[in-house]
Amino acid sequence: MRHGSDGSAVIIRFRAAGGLLLLAHLLLVGWLTLRPLDVPWVTSPNFRPLAGIEADLALGPAPAARRICEGLLLLAPLGVLLPMAGGRLSVSPVASLARTALAGALFSLAVELLQTGVPGQVVDVDSVLLNTAGVALAHLTVVPVGRARLRRKQERVPGGPVPREEISQGPTPTIPRVGIAP
User: Fold this and answer.
1) pLDDT in tens, 43-63
2) Does the structure show a pLDDT above 80 at 31?
3) Is 74 a residue whose pLDDT tops 60?
4) Are the beta carbons of 101 and 132 closer than 8 angstroms?
5) Where is this region: Disordered (predicted)?
Protein backbone atom coordinates (compact mmCIF):
# COMPACT_ATOMS: atom_id res chain seq x y z
CA MET A 1 0.00 0.00 0.00
CA ARG A 2 1.44 3.39 -1.00
CA HIS A 3 1.97 6.16 1.50
CA GLY A 4 -1.00 8.49 1.22
CA SER A 5 -3.31 5.89 -0.28
CA ASP A 6 -5.30 5.44 2.91
CA GLY A 7 -7.10 7.90 5.15
CA SER A 8 -4.64 7.56 8.03
CA ALA A 9 -1.90 9.31 6.03
CA VAL A 10 -4.17 12.34 5.74
CA ILE A 11 -4.62 12.39 9.50
CA ILE A 12 -0.88 11.97 10.12
CA ARG A 13 -0.06 14.93 7.86
CA PHE A 14 -2.84 16.96 9.48
CA ARG A 15 -1.52 16.20 12.98
CA ALA A 16 2.06 17.05 11.99
CA ALA A 17 0.98 20.37 10.50
CA GLY A 18 -1.11 21.08 13.61
CA GLY A 19 1.83 20.34 15.89
CA LEU A 20 4.20 22.60 13.96
CA LEU A 21 1.68 25.44 13.78
CA LEU A 22 0.92 25.03 17.49
CA LEU A 23 4.60 25.29 18.37
CA ALA A 24 5.02 28.39 16.19
CA HIS A 25 1.96 30.03 17.75
CA LEU A 26 3.10 29.28 21.31
CA LEU A 27 6.52 30.78 20.56
CA LEU A 28 4.85 33.92 19.19
CA VAL A 29 2.58 34.21 22.24
CA GLY A 30 5.56 33.76 24.55
CA TRP A 31 7.48 36.48 22.74
CA LEU A 32 4.51 38.88 22.80
CA THR A 33 3.55 38.37 26.42
CA LEU A 34 6.77 37.54 28.26
CA ARG A 35 9.23 40.13 26.99
CA PRO A 36 10.12 42.98 29.34
CA LEU A 37 8.54 46.33 28.58
CA ASP A 38 10.31 49.62 29.22
CA VAL A 39 7.52 51.73 30.69
CA PRO A 40 7.72 54.70 33.08
CA TRP A 41 4.99 53.28 35.35
CA VAL A 42 2.95 50.12 35.69
CA THR A 43 -0.70 49.75 36.65
CA SER A 44 -1.63 47.58 39.59
CA PRO A 45 -2.58 43.94 38.97
CA ASN A 46 -6.26 43.19 38.37
CA PHE A 47 -7.59 40.27 40.39
CA ARG A 48 -11.29 41.27 40.21
CA PRO A 49 -13.09 39.56 37.29
CA LEU A 50 -14.48 41.93 34.64
CA ALA A 51 -13.02 45.06 36.30
CA GLY A 52 -10.52 45.53 33.46
CA ILE A 53 -13.26 45.13 30.85
CA GLU A 54 -15.36 47.75 32.68
CA ALA A 55 -12.37 50.11 32.69
CA ASP A 56 -11.85 49.49 28.97
CA LEU A 57 -15.51 50.25 28.26
CA ALA A 58 -15.18 53.53 30.19
CA LEU A 59 -12.45 54.62 27.73
CA GLY A 60 -14.94 54.59 24.85
CA PRO A 61 -16.12 52.12 22.23
CA ALA A 62 -13.07 52.13 19.93
CA PRO A 63 -10.35 51.56 22.58
CA ALA A 64 -12.59 49.05 24.38
CA ALA A 65 -13.24 47.07 21.20
CA ARG A 66 -9.51 47.03 20.39
CA ARG A 67 -8.49 45.81 23.85
CA ILE A 68 -11.26 43.21 24.10
CA CYS A 69 -10.51 41.89 20.59
CA GLU A 70 -6.81 41.65 21.47
CA GLY A 71 -7.71 39.54 24.50
CA LEU A 72 -10.01 37.31 22.47
CA LEU A 73 -7.59 36.84 19.57
CA LEU A 74 -4.31 36.25 21.43
CA LEU A 75 -4.90 32.56 22.15
CA ALA A 76 -7.82 31.93 19.77
CA PRO A 77 -5.69 29.84 17.37
CA LEU A 78 -5.28 27.29 20.18
CA GLY A 79 -8.99 26.51 19.76
CA VAL A 80 -8.18 25.12 16.32
CA LEU A 81 -4.56 24.00 16.68
CA LEU A 82 -4.99 21.85 19.80
CA PRO A 83 -7.65 19.58 18.22
CA MET A 84 -5.70 19.65 14.95
CA ALA A 85 -2.57 18.40 16.70
CA GLY A 86 -4.66 15.78 18.53
CA GLY A 87 -5.97 14.43 15.23
CA ARG A 88 -9.16 12.84 16.55
CA LEU A 89 -12.05 12.65 14.11
CA SER A 90 -14.60 10.71 16.14
CA VAL A 91 -14.96 12.56 19.40
CA SER A 92 -17.82 14.13 21.30
CA PRO A 93 -18.10 17.81 20.31
CA VAL A 94 -18.85 18.80 23.91
CA ALA A 95 -15.88 16.87 25.28
CA SER A 96 -13.62 18.34 22.61
CA LEU A 97 -14.78 21.88 23.41
CA ALA A 98 -14.36 21.34 27.15
CA ARG A 99 -10.89 19.83 26.74
CA THR A 100 -9.75 22.61 24.42
CA ALA A 101 -11.21 25.44 26.51
CA LEU A 102 -9.65 24.00 29.67
CA ALA A 103 -6.25 23.71 27.98
CA GLY A 104 -6.59 27.31 26.74
CA ALA A 105 -7.52 28.51 30.23
CA LEU A 106 -4.57 26.69 31.78
CA PHE A 107 -2.16 28.06 29.20
CA SER A 108 -3.52 31.58 29.70
CA LEU A 109 -3.17 31.21 33.47
CA ALA A 110 0.41 29.99 33.03
CA VAL A 111 1.23 33.04 30.91
CA GLU A 112 -0.30 35.36 33.52
CA LEU A 113 1.65 33.68 36.31
CA LEU A 114 4.89 33.92 34.32
CA GLN A 115 4.23 37.62 33.75
CA THR A 116 4.59 38.27 37.47
CA GLY A 117 8.35 38.06 37.06
CA VAL A 118 8.60 40.13 33.86
CA PRO A 119 9.29 43.87 34.22
CA GLY A 120 6.51 46.01 32.76
CA GLN A 121 3.98 43.17 32.47
CA VAL A 122 0.92 43.15 34.72
CA VAL A 123 -1.31 40.28 35.80
CA ASP A 124 -4.94 40.67 34.72
CA VAL A 125 -7.61 38.06 35.45
CA ASP A 126 -9.70 39.46 32.59
CA SER A 127 -6.97 38.35 30.19
CA VAL A 128 -7.54 34.76 31.29
CA LEU A 129 -11.30 35.13 30.78
CA LEU A 130 -10.96 36.75 27.34
CA ASN A 131 -8.27 34.32 26.18
CA THR A 132 -10.39 31.34 27.22
CA ALA A 133 -13.46 32.78 25.51
CA GLY A 134 -11.41 33.32 22.34
CA VAL A 135 -10.20 29.72 22.38
CA ALA A 136 -13.76 28.43 22.84
CA LEU A 137 -15.19 30.66 20.08
CA ALA A 138 -12.49 29.66 17.61
CA HIS A 139 -13.08 26.00 18.44
CA LEU A 140 -16.84 26.31 17.96
CA THR A 141 -16.57 28.09 14.62
CA VAL A 142 -13.89 25.98 12.94
CA VAL A 143 -13.38 22.52 14.47
CA PRO A 144 -16.80 20.84 13.88
CA VAL A 145 -16.79 21.85 10.21
CA GLY A 146 -13.16 20.80 9.76
CA ARG A 147 -13.72 17.41 11.37
CA ALA A 148 -16.77 16.77 9.20
CA ARG A 149 -14.77 17.59 6.05
CA LEU A 150 -11.91 15.33 7.12
CA ARG A 151 -14.30 12.45 7.88
CA ARG A 152 -15.87 12.80 4.43
CA LYS A 153 -12.44 12.93 2.81
CA GLN A 154 -11.28 9.87 4.72
CA GLU A 155 -14.40 7.89 3.75
CA ARG A 156 -13.85 8.61 0.04
CA VAL A 157 -10.30 7.26 0.09
CA PRO A 158 -10.07 3.56 -0.94
CA GLY A 159 -8.92 1.50 1.99
CA GLY A 160 -10.19 4.14 4.42
CA PRO A 161 -11.95 3.22 7.63
CA VAL A 162 -14.75 0.70 7.50
CA PRO A 163 -17.98 1.77 9.21
CA ARG A 164 -18.71 -0.11 12.44
CA GLU A 165 -21.86 -1.66 11.00
CA GLU A 166 -19.81 -3.47 8.36
CA ILE A 167 -17.28 -5.01 10.73
CA SER A 168 -17.96 -8.69 11.42
CA GLN A 169 -16.49 -9.91 14.67
CA GLY A 170 -16.84 -13.64 14.05
CA PRO A 171 -16.46 -16.27 16.76
CA THR A 172 -14.06 -15.71 19.63
CA PRO A 173 -10.83 -17.65 19.04
CA THR A 174 -9.97 -20.38 21.51
CA ILE A 175 -6.49 -21.26 22.69
CA PRO A 176 -5.73 -24.96 23.20
CA ARG A 177 -4.56 -25.90 26.66
CA VAL A 178 -0.96 -26.90 26.94
CA GLY A 179 0.11 -29.37 29.58
CA ILE A 180 3.11 -29.05 31.85
CA ALA A 181 6.38 -30.05 30.22
CA PRO A 182 7.92 -33.38 31.39
Assistant:
1) 888 899 999 999 999 999 999
2) yes
3) yes
4) yes
5) 153-182
Radius of gyration of the chain (CA): 24
Provide the pLDDT for residue 1.
Answer: 35
Concatenating the DSSP letter of every residue in the chain gives --TTSSHHHHHHHHHHHHHHHHHHHHHHHHHHHHS----S--PPPB-STTHHHHHHHHT-HHHHHHHHHHHHHHSTTHHHHHHHHHT-SS--HHHHHHHHHHHHHHHHHHHHHHHTTSTT---BHHHHHHHHHHHHHHHHHHHHHHHHHHHHHHHHSTT-PPPGGG----SPP---------
Distance CA 140, CA 29 (A): 21
CA atoms within 13 A on the CB side of 126: 18
